[in-house]
Specification:
Length: 162
């Protein structure tokens, strides 16, 4: 028997991004698709972040994160970050990246654009994900384009909802 709530949630399109985080002694990158702009002024980003992820602890401690935005043509770069830290502890060692100028978060080589964010709030949902709110304090565009070219889950035939 199907669940109409799950079916409806799976109909919502989601982008597919690489979220980067750091503390003084650790860096990480993970894929994430529950993200949206939450305010124009100041420019705020809200992301739904799984509480058991390695990045959750880094973002909670370091108070910064990056959003790496990719074009559909660059999907193979993103796939390298789909395994969690427990299954791929050396993914940052093998990754090509630089550090963003405002926050120092990793910027993944091949990203079309990136946003640097400082954490300004957290909503504990009581569920398996919390909402992290970040103010955009820096950005860069490496490959100009529009939203129609941005990588999303349907491009990969995947979904993360329901």
């Amino acid at each position: 028997m199907s669940d109409p709530k799950s079916e409806a949630l799976k109909m919502m399109p989601y982008g597919f991004y690489v979220i980067t985080s750091k503390t003084d002694d650790d860096e990480n990158a993970m894929v994430l698709n529950w993200i949206t702009q939450a305010s124009y002024e100041p420019q705020l980003i809200a992301l739904g972040l799984q509480k058991t992820s390695h990045s959750y602890g880094l973002i909670e401690k370091g108070k910064v994160f990056g959003v790496n935005i990719f074009k559909q043509a660059d999907a193979d770069i993103v796939k390298g970050f789909t395994k969690g830290r427990a299954k791929n502890p050396d993914k940052m060692k093998d990754a090509s990246y630089t550090h963003a100028p405002e926050t120092g978060v990793p910027v993944i080589e091949g990203a079309a654009a990136y946003l640097e964010c400082k954490v300004v709030g957290k909503l504990e949902t009581g569920g398996d994900h919390d909402i992290i709110l970040g103010e955009v304090v820096g950005a860069g565009v490496n490959k100009p384009g529009d939203a129609g070219e941005t990588l999303n889950l349907p491009d990969l035939g995947w979904n993360y909802a329901g």
